[in-house]
Design goal:
The structure holds two protein chains of two kinds. The relative contact order of chain A is 0.12. Chain A has 13 helices and two strands. Chain A starts with a helix and ends with a helix. By secondary structure, chain A is mostly helical. Chain A is flat and about 70 Å long. By secondary structure, chain B is mainly alpha-helical. Chain B contains 16 helices and no strands. The longest helix of chain B is centred in the first third of the chain and has 32 residues. The two termini of chain B are 43 Å apart. In chain B, 45% of the residues are buried. Classes of the chains: A mainly alpha, B mainly alpha. At the A-B interface, helix 2, helix 4, helix 5, helix 6 and helix 8 of A face helix 2, helix 5, helix 6, helix 7 and helix 11 of B. Chain B: Belongs to the binding-protein-dependent transport system permease family. Chain B: This is Sugar ABC transporter permease. Chain B: It holds the Pfam family BPD_transp_1. Chain B: It is found in: Cell membrane.
């Protein structure tokens, strides 16, 4: 306590010292801050941010056979509007999204809710459902293609047992996209389930206890308590699933051969981008497709942001 | 007695019933992969199908190694995965610490710039990135996959959240002891951000191991191929020999499977954390 009078006495002298000390401290703060963010910021600028600018530039160019390109203005964008293959790819991707996202989310919520109950073997179930998440899409595609095999595959054998002549799962243009959708749903359940499960565990127990006292049945509890309180998580998962589904490539690339009869009816926008960019050496047009992808993804996010006000409950 | 009996009554029975059907659907493809990988070609195309092969054809696995430089692919994938993960953990946490704990001019603008990368779909970077690799002469090299993969806006964002949640007092105490920012980061903050580091580590490991498009674009020679790309090339060559294809697939997923079995909790929590933030 004896320091108190002393402090007031030397206050003015100390202030100068303190402020110069604060200055050097600040300067050393800046030095360390810039040093610490430098590698990541430089890397992001060189490999990610500058490429965004470049991609925009490329989208106004046309490429020749030897890597030279020339400015062609809006030609690529005009082409986008008239490209029947792109329209088809857009349709395919939309069908893929319309099925995988809602069904995937629905199934993973069910699994998460069941695993959130007081039952035995929870962690074993959780592990099994998670298996596809850690498996490389190339291998997933391979084994499913084998099970889909029209002549020797498991599915058509099982169908033959009940007298059905199974289809050509991955080469019939009318069916192939749905075969891919089934695989996508299968491989995505575990990922979303884990996120929903951690969301469910964040719902306070008291809500359920109160509902029990009021005599609410399990269905009422699910719709009146679980679903509304889970809605921020559902919102988040929906956006991420939509964006992810919009960029589908691996499964289609691996399951549908380059010369398959079903290619036209399954190829996605990203598949088309890959084709133009790295197979057909039509890089300017590919860059325009990438810009289109960016625009659509920003629109999806914006729409979701507006819609969330209507159905997401934050407490 | 009562509890075991309860397992089989009403609601719980229904829950297990649904969960078991789902779990079977999850596991069966893997089982079928393994069983097929041990069959002879003739067995694999037999109708009705052979469930358990008569003699386990371990030779199929040997054949995969003979057909493709599978060890090389495995080596490439491990190197890429390890370096990308270690690099990202270090560089992202470094930047995340500065963004979360130090005030400096331009902090918000720089962070916003990093966030832009998060909003943009990967295809937008791909072409220019490819051109950069061409210019650097890095096509068909491991660094073509490693170097761009060292920097992550996502990782920086994720770890920043963790650092922001830590109490200020810790830092002040270390400062009074004369630590500079790097020392505070290294000795005080990093150990406390462990859950975040594990989450990012798992996420990056999974991503690097399984990624297909970028490694396929930049590395098409067997010397620098990863397992994912190797598998897709195996498919092109041995279109119908499913025992071989299944053996190759199983070999490609085996290391991640083993890692998962040992680190189940970390994997699942890591995904919950990276997904939930």
């Amino acid at each position: 306590m004896r320091e108190v009078p002393l402090q007031t006495e030397v206050k003015s002298a100390k202030r100068i010292k303190v402020s110069s000390l604060a200055k050097t401290r600040k300067r050393s703060d800046y030095f360390w801050a810039y040093l610490m963010i430098a590698p990541t910021m430089l890397g992001l600028i060189i490999f990610y941010l500058w490429p965004i600018v470049q991609n925009f530039y490329f989208s106004f160019t046309e490429w020749g056979a030897f890597g030279q390109y020339e400015w062609t203005g809006l030609d690529n964008y005009k082409r986008l509007l008239e490209d029947a293959a792109l329209l088809k790819a857009f349709k395919n991707t939309s069908i893929y999204i319309i099925f995988t996202v809602p069904i995937g989310i629905f199934l993973s919520i069910i699994v998460a809710v069941l695993l959130n109950q007081n039952i035995k073997g929870k962690s074993i179930y959780r592990t099994l459902y998670f298996l596809p998440v850690i498996t490389m899409p190339a291998a997933i595609a391979m084994v499913w293609k084998w099970m889909y095999n029209a002549d020797y595959g498991m599915f058509n054998y099982l169908l033959s047992l009940v007298g059905i002549d199974g289809p050509q799962w991955v080469s019939d243009p009318n069916i192939a996209l749905y075969s891919i959708i089934a695989v996508a749903i299968w491989s995505g359940i575990g990922y979303n389930m884990v996120i929903f499960l951690s969301g469910l565990q964040g719902i306070p127990k008291m809500y359920y206890e109160a509902a029990e006292i009021d005599g609410a049945g399990p269905v009422t509890v699910f719709f009146k308590i679980t679903l509304p309180l889970l809605s921020p998580v559902i919102f988040f998962v929906t956006i991420m699933s939509l964006i992810g589904a919009f960029q589908v490539f691996d499964l289609i690339f691996m399951m549908i051969g380059k010369s398959s009869t079903a290619l036209e009816s399954t190829q996605s926008i990203v598949y088309l981008f890959y084709q133009h960019a790295f197979v057909l050496n039509d890089k300017g047009y590919a860059a325009a497709i990438a810009v289109l992808l960016l625009a659509v993804i920003l629109i999806i996010t914006a729409i979701q942001m507006v819609l969330q006000k209507k159905w997401v409950h934050y407490d | 007695m009562d509890r075991t009996f309860k397992l089989f009554t009403g609601k719980t029975f229904l829950f297990h019933f649904i969960l078991i059907i789902g779990a079977a659907a999850m596991v069966l493809p893997f089982l079928w992969m393994i069983l097929t990988s041990l069959k002879t070609y003739a067995e694999s195309i037999q109708v009705p199908p052979v469930l358990i092969p008569e003699d386990f054809q371990w030779g199929n696995y040997k054949e995969v190694f003979g057909l493709l430089p599978f060890f090389k692919f495995m080596y490439n994938t491990v190197i890429i995965t390890v370096l990308r993960t270690a690099g990202q953990l270090f560089l992202c946490s470094l930047a995340a610490y500065a963004f979360a704990r130090i005030e400096f001019p331009g902090r918000n603008i720089l962070f916003l710039l990093a966030l832009t990368v998060l909003m943009v779909p990967g295809q937008v970077f791909l072409l220019p990135q490819y051109m950069i690799m061409v210019k650097l002469g890095w096509l068909n090299s491991l660094q073509a996959v490693i170097v761009p993969g060292l920097f992550s806006a996502f990782g920086t964002f994720l770890l920043r959240q963790f650092f922001m949640g830590l109490p200020k007092e810790l830092e002040e105490a270390a400062r009074l002891d004369g630590c500079n920012h790097f020392q505070i980061y290294w000795k005080v903050m990093l150990p406390l951000a462990k859950p975040g580091l594990i989450a990012l580590g798992i996420f990056t490991t999974l991503w690097s191991w399984n990624e297909l498009m970028w490694p396929m674009i930049v590395n098409s020679s067997p010397e620098s191929m990863t397992l994912s790309v190797g598998l897709s090339s195996l498919q092109g060559q041995y279109l119908t020999n499913y025992p071989i294809l299944m053996a190759g697939s199983f070999l490609a997923i085996l290391p991640m499977l083993i890692l998962f079995i040992f680190l189940q909790k970390q994997f699942i929590e890591g995904i919950a954390v990276t997904g939930g933030k």
